[in-house]
Amino acid sequence: MDSEVRYPLSDDLKRIIAGENETVFRMVEDRFSVIIHSRLPGLRIEAKGKKADIQGALSLLDQVKLAAKSGTFLSKGFLSRLADDTSKHSCSKKSVSKPFIPDTPILRNKLGLPVVPKTASQAELVKACDSNDIIFADGPAGTGKTFLAVAIAVASLERHEAERICLVRPAVEAGESLGYLPGDLKEKIAPYLRPIQDSLAELLPQEKLRKYQEDGLIEVAPLAYMRGRTLKHAFIILDEAQNTTIPQMQMFLTRLGQHSKAIITGDSSQIDLGPRQVSGFAHAIRLLSKIQGIAHIAFPQTDVLRHPLVREIVKAYEHGGKK
Questions:
Q1: If you classify domain 107-322 with CATH, what class do you get?
Q2: Which CATH number does 4-91 carry?
Q3: Which residues pair with 7 in a beta bridge?
Q4: Do 107 and 158 contact (CB within 8 A), yes or no?
Q5: Burial category of 150 from C-beta neighbours within 10 Å (exposed 0-12, middle 13-18, buried 19 and up)
Q6: E runs forming strands in the chain
Q7: How many angstroms separate the Cα of 41 from the Cα of each of 4, 21, 27, 32?
Q8: pLDDT tens digits along 270-300
Q9: Where exactly are the structural domains of the chain?
């Protein structure tokens, strides 16, 4: 790699991605030991010392440029995750030349903002949906598995690739007894399905979501409702799948009909089943992930997108569990 390269960049994009006082360029310089000269047309990137990684800097700038073009808000956290992923692949000598930010967003949410992958694992999940009909997504809370899966499903419905969406969750309490819940069956199961409803509400305008649900184009249901059904031309999401038993997982997987696709999300480290029950999620991943048409995406701790402390909490509990 040359000790100095030119990076083509229009003045408009340069202003967008540079940040206030060119903070983005300064971050790239610090992370990859380079110097960025921005006064001339485009950018001139110069190596700074023996630890300089010009290829890594170019890869990160490629991803930031694509994110800016798609309308993604370049927050400090988003940029930091991009830099972490680029540094990780660079250190492992994997190719970093191919950005994971797509040219076009998955879809735009109800505010018109683009929904795009925010980590390499999220991008891997999106890509896996193109060539697989069953995708297992395993990772800690806060990595965006459920939200991204719902976004992919909604985009599929809006493009008329799927005739309906079926969003499913097992009704398992998280380590505590909720006791008797008042109301009819719909009201009783509502708390279990709330996270999926929240994702839908963030993606779709209220009236559009209500019409989709009234017309049966979007169905949110507990896992028990799947028994005896065959879902054709559907996009199905099973969330919190670590809380399924082996028979429940087998029952769910055999509901898949012609021209259907399923994303199964879960966190193998947070199983709320009884002490003698084996998770059908982990069992299915071991049993099925080598079958063609079935993919397994593992989300690492570093992909946690919630409050920065959540990542540290996940790490501490995992370390404590191993001890």
A1: alpha beta
A2: 3.30.1370
A3: 43
A4: yes
A5: buried
A6: 4-7, 34-37, 43-47, 107-108, 114-115, 134-138, 164-169, 218-222, 234-238, 261-266, 294-298
A7: 15, 18, 20, 22
A8: 888 888 889 999 999 999 988 999 999 999 8
A9: 4-91, 107-322
